[in-house]
Amino acid sequence: MATIEKRNRRGSQTVYRVKIRVRGQPARSATFKSVAEAKQWALQTEADIQRGRYFRHAEAERHTLAEAIDRYVTSALPALRSRRLVGSQLAWWRKHLGALRLSDLTAAEIVRQRDALRAEPGNRRGRIADATLNRYVAALSMVLNKAYREWEWLDQVPTVRVMRLKEPRGRTRSLNETERQALLLACRASRNPHLYVIVVLALSTGARRMEILRLRWADVDLARKRLVFRDTKNGEQRAAPISAPARAVLESLPAGDPDALLFPSPRRPDQPVALQCAWETAVAKAGLQNFRFHDLRHTAASYLAMSGATTGDIAALLGHKSLAMVARYQHLTASHTGTVAERMAAQFLIVEDPSLYTASFPRPSRREEIPADGYRGLTAGERLHNGFGEVHTPVIDLQTRIAPEAGAYGEFTGAAAEIDIGELLTEE
Q1: Is 318 a domain residue?
Q2: 39-50 pLDDT, tens digit each
Q3: Treating both helix axes as pointing N-terminal to C-terminal, what angle do 195-205 and 177-188 enclose, rounded to 10 degrees?
Q4: In which band, very low, low, confident or very high, does the pLDDT at 253 lie, cut at 50, 70 and 90?
Q5: CB of 135 within 8 A of CB of 125?
């Protein structure tokens, strides 16, 4: 596969030219000053070819990160829902690392640039949060994965070795009773006629702001008390029940064409109404601190948890694919699960006579005569009142319940196998 050719250049300089030919691939060659270097390169290159890495590495040397980003922006970015955000993140990477060849792009260089991004002016806290830095690396990872899997420009993805920064636990800010009433009053008094309806829908369905703003009249089924969110964050259609308060505010709206938006802009009916200014004014009038529109979603989830909904119920209503997203509300279900435990204990675990838990009964021999009902030495009252409340199970090892007609390891037959549980529960 590899051939080494000795050549004499001008000035009596001797070099060794290595050429590797592979069927279906262009020939690869390199020149070295010593035969040892030539042989080492030939062995390494042949091994890489067998592993399928060499030609990808050659492609990585031929392309820069800017070329990869440009190709991704043209071919893949338009299909993303978050294309504007991802596009701005990729533009940052292109500015800082675009001139770098893909073969020279390492995890260490990516981490160095990520840490430099941390110091840039970002949010109101003076620096960019770790969660945002993770999103920047994720955007770059999408490009590199495309280059590795589909374009075959890379033999490995360097972002795989970049450790994800630890992110803080998700917000759980929710409204208490006083705050909720104050916010609803402020929204009702708002100059924006849609604000109150939108906030009520957010509290009753837990939907995101854009999910509500993109609702059309075709998505509202008042007869079946159901809303359909078609344009969701995860791309999957989701149905939500319409509660009585939500139905009341929806019925107050003037009905429109099926394709018309529920909350259109007064200037551009094909666009959703602008909400931010009216929302911030209502929050200020209600005297709320550190409260965002998305916190209405947290409030709805918290109310569901405190009303007895399971994490599965909350995930289904809010459209979460993973139960990990609703784990933040687990502590709010403690009172509900405590009530369930108390109800179970009241029904099944009432202790009337604790001594029955430790009562011992003589173990009969296999051939010993025992009563037909199989409960040796117990009165009817003892059978019923054994410390387990209304579901009465005799406190006795089942192995002592041996029918005379049974074999050593056979099945129960005869009267002992025909105990009527209903009679036991009614017997006094």
Answers
A1: yes
A2: 887 777 777 666
A3: 150
A4: confident
A5: no
Q: Is 375 exposed, middle or buried (0-12, 13-18, 19+ CB in 10 A)?
A: buried
Is the pLDDT at 325 greater than 90? The verdict is no
pTM for this model (two decimals): 0.56
pLDDT at 346: 61
Same domain, 269 and 192: yes
353 shares its domain with 256: no
Q: Is the same domain home to 279 and 230?
A: yes
Q: What mean pLDDT value characterizes the chain? A: 75
Residues 6+ apart with CB under 8 A from 17: 4, 5, 7, 29, 30, 31, 38
Q: Are both 310 and 228 inside the same structural domain?
A: yes
The reply to whether 378 falls in a domain is yes
Check pLDDT > 60 for residue 89: yes
Domain co-membership, 320 together with 197? yes
Q: How confident is the model at residue 330 (pLDDT cuts 50, 70, 90)?
A: low
User: pLDDT band at residue 142, thresholds of 50, 70 and 90?
Assistant: very high
Q: Is 358 within the bounds of a domain? A: yes
Average pLDDT for residues 391-417, to the nearest whole number? 39
Mean pLDDT of 39-62: 69
Q: Report the domain count for the chain.
A: 4
For residue 368, pLDDT beyond 50: no
The residue range of the domain holding 16 is 2-51
**CB within 8 Å of 147: residues ≥ 6 apart:** 63, 68, 72, 102, 153, 154
